[in-house]
Design a protein that fits this description.
By secondary structure, the protein is of the alpha+beta class. It has four helices and six strands. The protein has one domain.
Length: about 140
């Protein structure tokens, strides 16, 4: 019996550690995503909404901010489960939001911003506004 108790305690600690999440990034208010407006929201406003990004980078010459709030769970030696979300925001050369993408692991929200941006560049305001409204509706359904 004396040998079994330490074995059970060790087994409990091992299995408990195996499901302890590994945190990547930090929490951010995903509700603020509905405040992002292509060509209107500034880089400063993004920083006010979400704080400093987890990562900064460039994509085709455009500044990109990445916000990450994820937990990784190692469920076994071959299985990893991910929970949380990632937000990527791209800025134009004038510092306005050009595009953004929200990802929920296992459930991606396909936003229509790239099409919106292209129609906006072509000065097709009606089509751009229609796409913007579709995007906002899609975000509301998935938040």
């Amino acid at each position: 019996m004396k040998k079994i108790i330490p074995l059970l305690v060790g087994l409990f600690l091992f299995t408990n550690c195996a499901t302890t999440p590994y945190k990547i990034g930090r929490e951010f208010d995903i509700g603020k995503i509905t405040d992002l407006k292509i060509g209107v929201t500034t880089e400063k406003e993004v920083l006010l909404y979400f704080g400093e990004p987890y990562r900064k980078g460039l994509h085709n010459g455009s500044k990109v901010y990445t916000y990450v709030n994820e937990n990784l769970f190692i469920e076994s030696d071959k299985e990893v489960r991910k929970e949380g979300n990632t937000l990527v925001i791209e800025f134009d050369k004038n510092g306005f939001v050009k595009n953004y993408y929200l990802n929920y692991p296992g459930k991606e929200v396909a936003v229509l911003n790239l099409l919106y941006f292209n129609y906006k560049q072509d000065k097709d305001e009606d089509k751009a506004e229609e796409l913007n409204q579709q995007n906002q509706n899609l975000l509301q359904q998935n938040l």
